[in-house]
Specification:
The protein is mainly α. The chain has helices at residues 2-32, 37-52, 73-83, 105-115, 129-149, 156-179, 181-185, 190-219, 223-234, 237-255, 259-292, 294-297, 305-319, 324-335, 358-374, 379-387, 397-413, 421-430, 438-450. The protein has 19 helices and no strands. The N and C termini lie close together (11 Å). The relative contact order is 0.12.
């Protein structure tokens, strides 16, 4: 309860701050008028086009990138396991970050460039922080409207983060520029570029902190790993966004607004390549999910078993502080953990391998590892699949998670525990001397208790 209240407070605080800034910016702009409307219109059009170019990334997983909103399907799947209900195994589990961390990089770069804009073709500009907030918000909203009409609007937190990070960058640059202190202290040489890069680094850090806080508030996952993934994402396309923002601002200072379409082309090409890589990853992940369903279709496991184990394993992994890449490996291994059962002549009752003799469980796991290798998944995924039946002290860390979660789901799905989840967890605790790592079992209990 306390975590939910704290999460609601964080989300409400971020949104409230963004709304306050937008209202102040709108009031200031309406009262004083739009300064340099041509420049504002050019950057506003660029930001709106960037938002329009946004592609749906709900099925894309950037394994090395930053968390945004998490799909609600993970919560439903964990609840299915928690309540012991079967579910249709259709579709792929959404156990970790299912969205692109930078869904509109061109718009982000344009907003940063406007916030850091000094002279325009050597002529001084006079727009302030509040006008920048107004233009960025209005342009982003205009670009989002078509997505809203199609029922594919981005989360409100995305727009709140955009407003706050742009306001931070503008507040650190515009007062110094408009007062002349920036030119007197730094000038127009390489020191200005270094200052802009330093400022963008701080802005990226501010955005990462906000994104991790919002993701942690929504999901209840540990803040440290979320922040680490956000910072790692800043080294990827986040660096391209920041560099393009600086280049745009400096280009407009020398060549005027004609520099905008020239300097946005490289980032646009990067965005297209990024989406293509994401589409490949989505197809790859769906292929693994379809292969994992073979045991369900053949009647070896209960419907939805692999999907539930994958969702709950990733929830436990997130609780333990795994990175996005480790969560992806964990999910693939959890999806394929029962693939070795296809080699059995007589199926295991209800597909529950947790109660098999150790030798038989190890043989099925080794066969599953061989099948996984032939599918072309990373070698570490196959290792986790084939080592899941070993004593936990001899297993890789991720295999310990798959084994404990699979055993819990097997126990909960059978008729041996009329007491439900608590009885299943108690049996796992009794096996922590050899079979299950105590930290993983306790982490599983916390995830289930949180619901």
């Amino acid at each position: 309860m306390r975590g939910a209240v704290l999460g609601a407070t964080v989300v409400g605080g971020v949104r409230g701050a963004a709304v306050a800034l937008v209202l102040a910016g709108l009031g200031h702009t309406l009262w004083n008028g739009l300064v340099e409307p041509g420049t504002a219109l050019a950057f506003g059009a660029l930001i709106a086009c960037g938002e329009l170019a946004r592609r749906e990334t709900r099925d894309v997983r950037d394994t090395g990138g930053a968390p945004g909103a998490r799909d609600a399907r993970e919560v439903r799947e964990v609840r299915e396991v928690r309540g012991g209900r079967d579910a249709d195994g259709g579709g792929a589990p959404r156990a970790t970050a299912p969205e692109d961390r930078r869904p509109a990089p061109l718009a982000s770069a344009g907003a940063l460039a406007y916030a850091l804009l000094g002279p325009d073709a050597a002529a001084p500009t006079h727009h302030g922080v509040l006008q920048i907030v107004t233009v960025v918000f209005a342009a982003a909203l205009a670009g989002i409207v078509p997505h809203i009409a199609r029922g594919r609007a981005p989360a409100a937190d995305h727009l709140a983060r955009r407003v706050l990070t742009v306001a931070f960058a503008a507040a650190c640059f515009q007062p110094l520029y408009n007062s002349g202190r920036l030119e007197r202290g730094i000038g127009q040489g390489p020191y200005l570029v270094l200052y802009l890069l330093l400022l963008l680094g701080l802005t990226a850090l501010c955005d990462a902190v906000l994104a991790a806080a919002l993701a942690g508030a929504r999901t209840g996952w540990p803040y440290g790993p979320l922040l680490r993934d956000e910072l790692r994402d800043q080294l990827g396309i986040g660096s391209a966004i920041c560099a393009t923002g600086v280049v745009m601002a400096l280009g407009v200072a020398v060549a005027g607004l004609w520099a905008l379409p020239v300097f946005c082309v490289p980032l646009l090409l990067t965005q297209l390549s990024f989406h293509r890589i994401g589409a490949i990853r989505t197809t790859y992940r769906q292929t693994i999910a379809s292969l994992a369903r073979a045991t369900e279709i053949a009647g070896y496991t209960r419907p939805g078993h692999s999907r539930r184990v994958a969702a709950l394993s990733c929830a436990v992994g997130r609780e333990l502080g795994l990175s996005e890449r480790e969560l992806t490996v964990l999910e693939y291994a959890a999806l394929m953990h029962d693939i070795g059962q296809l080699s059995l002549v007589d199926p295991v009752r209800a597909g529950a391998t947790a109660g098999l003799p150790p030798a038989e469980a190890r043989r099925i796991a080794e066969l599953g590892g061989e099948v996984a290798r032939q599918t072309g998944v990373p070698a570490e995924v196959a290792v986790i699949v084939e080592r899941q039946a070993d004593p936990y002290r001899e297993q890789p860390a991720l295999a310990r998670i798959v084994r404990a979660v699979n055993a819990y789901e097997d126990l909960l799905g059978g008729s041996r525990h009329p007491g439900g989840p608590l009885a299943a967890l108690e049996q796992l605790r009794l096996g922590t001397g050899r079979d299950y790592q105590p930290e993983v079992v306790e982490c599983l209990a916390r995830v289930l208790a949180r619901g």
